[in-house]
Amino acid sequence: MLRLLRPIWERTIVLKVEHLDVFYGDLQILWDVSFEVKEGEIVVLLGANGAGKSTTLKAVSSLLKLANGSIEFQGSRLDQVRSHKVIEFGVAHVPEGRRLFPEMTVEENLIIGSLTPEAKAKRKETMKRIYELFPRLDERKRQNAGTLSGGEQQMLAIGRGMMSLPKLLMLDEPSLGLAPILVMDIFRIVQMINKEGVTILLVEQNVKHTLTMCDRAYVLENGRITLSGTGNEFLNNDHIKEAYLGI
Ligand code: ATP
């Protein structure tokens, strides 16, 4: 799984999102949204409930049609492929609410994450690595996913995303509804996955912790990108402090 990364200043842009306009029916949700993610980065999208963060990830996954704009991943136009093909480009999306198959076992849920030819060929070794990252999943591999705790289900959702051997892993609020100790576990594992060379695009409400671990962040407000900067710049920004950190 380990990929060698170039130094951060030499890294190329892998995901380029330009001028997105997205509607649900007549209602415009995203307005001229542009951002980029470089190879090996952890990039965070922040924003209040309803700002359009999940909509942005769904657009990158080609689950939504764009009214305007383009989405390029490593030079290929994702907005021009069907959603089930996006995974073949190396982009995995772990959606909010996990979307597991509750009546299937942990192992069966993981297998479903590895259906592309490359992922299928490496299924055994990837699964071994997932079980090393998440020993609880190993202990519960024959259990139905629906019987797992919230934290374990989140681990399984991330594990299933990793089974596709993604180059870019998009995580939509992985800490939602979890006890603080599990939140720390999830973030620690996200950082480990990133250190192994997987680029991360993260949507989170847990702003303080996310800003300390990310390379860069963007703020979405009412469907528009209103601010961008490094994690450190955000931690020292008065608007961020007041609106998102409560200080
Ligand atoms: P949250 O943290 O609450 O999920 P978010 O920033 O991810 O917030 P989105 O889920 O992207 O926000 O929603 C953006 C806006 O689009 C909201 O006003 C929401 O009500 C609306 N919306 C989301 N899904 C649909 C849908 N399927 N049909 C119509 N409107 C929708």
Task: Furnish the topology, listing elements before pairings.
Elements lengths: L12 E12 L2 E12 L3 E5 L6 H8 L7 E6 L2 E2 L5 H4 L4 E4 L11 H7 L4 H5 L1 H11 L1 H5 L10 H13 L5 E5 L7 H16 L3 E5 L3 H7 L2 E6 L2 E7 H5 L2 H8 L2
Parallel strand pairs: 3-8, 3-9, 6-7, 7-8
Antiparallel strand pairs: 1-2, 1-4, 4-5, 9-10
Helix pairs in contact: 3-7
The chain binds adenosine-5'-triphosphate.
The site of adenosine-5'-triphosphate has 11 residues, from helix 1.
Description:
The protein is of the alpha/beta class and 247 residues long. The chain has eleven helices and ten strands. It has helices at residues 53-60, 83-86, 106-112, 117-121, 123-133, 135-139, 150-162, 180-195, 207-213, 231-235, 238-245, and strands at residues 13-24, 27-38, 42-46, 68-73, 76-77, 91-94, 168-172, 199-203, 216-221, 224-230. The chain is globular. The protein folds into two domains: 8-90 and 166-244, P-loop containing nucleotide triphosphate hydrolases (Rossmann fold); 102-164, no CATH class. The model has no long low-confidence stretch (mean pLDDT 91). Helix 3 packs parallel to helix 7 (150-162). The longest helix has 16 residues, at 180-195. It is 36% helix and 26% strand. The strands form two sheets. The chain has a six-stranded mixed β-sheet, with helices on both faces. The termini are far apart. The structure holds adenosine-5'-triphosphate.
Question: Would you kindly provide a brief summary of this structure?
Answer:
This protein is α/β, with parallel strands linked by helices. It contains eleven helices and ten strands. A six-stranded mixed beta sheet has the order 6-7-8-3-9-10, with helices on both faces.
